[in-house]
Predict the 3D structure of the following.
Amino acid sequence: MKEQNGYHIAVVGATGAVGKQMIQTLINENFPIRKLTLLSSARSAGKKVDVDGQEYIITEAKPESFEGVDIALFSAGGNVSKELGPEAVKRGAIVVDNTSAFRMDPNTPLVVPEVNEAELHQHNGIIANPNCSTIQMVVALEPIRQRFGLKKVIVSTYQAVSGAGAAAVEELMEQTQSILNGQAYDPKILPVKSDKNHYQIAFNAIPQIDMFQDNGYTFEEMKMINETKKIMDSPELQISATCVRLPVAVGHSESVYFEIESGDISANDIKALLKDAPGIVLQDDPENQLYPMPANCVGKNEVFVGRIRKDLDEDLGFHMWVVSDNLLKGAAWNSVQIAESLVKLGLVK
Ligand SMILES: NC(=O)c1ccc[n+]([C@@H]2O[C@H](COP(=O)([O-])OP(=O)(O)OC[C@H]3O[C@@H](n4cnc5c(N)ncnc54)[C@H](OP(=O)(O)O)[C@@H]3O)[C@@H](O)[C@H]2O)c1
């Protein structure tokens, strides 16, 4: 019955950078929608938005908003998820949460469908969508882990400002214009809105994403480390990360060094494996200068991999370059993909 009529979907944070992409992705993917409820804070309540030629009015997210909702896609910040996620579950909805609120909760599956779709069977109402930079890396690493084993990962990221929300994109655009016009500017958002200092992002690189932790790593770096171990169910994996913000609007890039467990493996073996792996587009032809770049991956769901080469000293070590649209595979598409998997596996009541 549900399949014929579709599902009642709620998008929480519908006016945000991720929320807007979620709505567009639901439409692009032809997700079976019976009813669409678009929620935000009181600030945007009453705003009219056009979805596929139909006008919708944004309403304020409240516990009662989730009556009759089948699947609620949350991307309105961790506090909103903590407060309203359980309220949605109480009313019978399955929550797919884009924030870090429940990711490390042992009772909440943290899912990238290409890697651990089966974890969805364990859900208790809430499913966590991993951090954007983690998602694209695990999609690229999982086929390698499955075939050759994975001992060690060292990742450096080159992340787009849209990862910090719509206001950060605006800051990059306005600042760039001010600098080009020789006008003064006053950074207010990056690297972290709530931190003490704010720095220029235009024509710059900022080695801080999220707040510093006591161990000297940022929270973004610790998210990549802890989430990767959880998604791959590999607590013993040696992994460290350095996360850097660049003046790119959309599309995260990553330089990933990894060591396999064993095997006499060439870079071509890795390329052959990733060429046919789910969710991956291999773009690796140095002779013709073919490699992934954020400008070419915007608006695409896949993870793009290139520059695969063997380390010059470590026989089991390799390097690769991984790029993806952080608002799509890093957020909206992965969430909608989870919703599609829930439907496919018969897990939506
Ligand atoms: N950007 C990314 O690449 C990315 C990737 C993965 C996960 N995420 C996560 O997704 C969340 C949203 O990110 P974003 O980039 O879309 O941020 P954003 O552009 O700043 O949008 C925030 C959204 O949350 C809504 N909101 C804020 N406070 C609310 C409240 N009290 N109740 C209901 N809605 C509220 C806002 O509504 P108003 O219009 O009313 O303010 C807006 O729709 C964050 O937790 C972020 O960590 C982001």
About this structure: The longest strand covers residues 150-159. The chain has two domains: 2-129+331-344, 134-326.
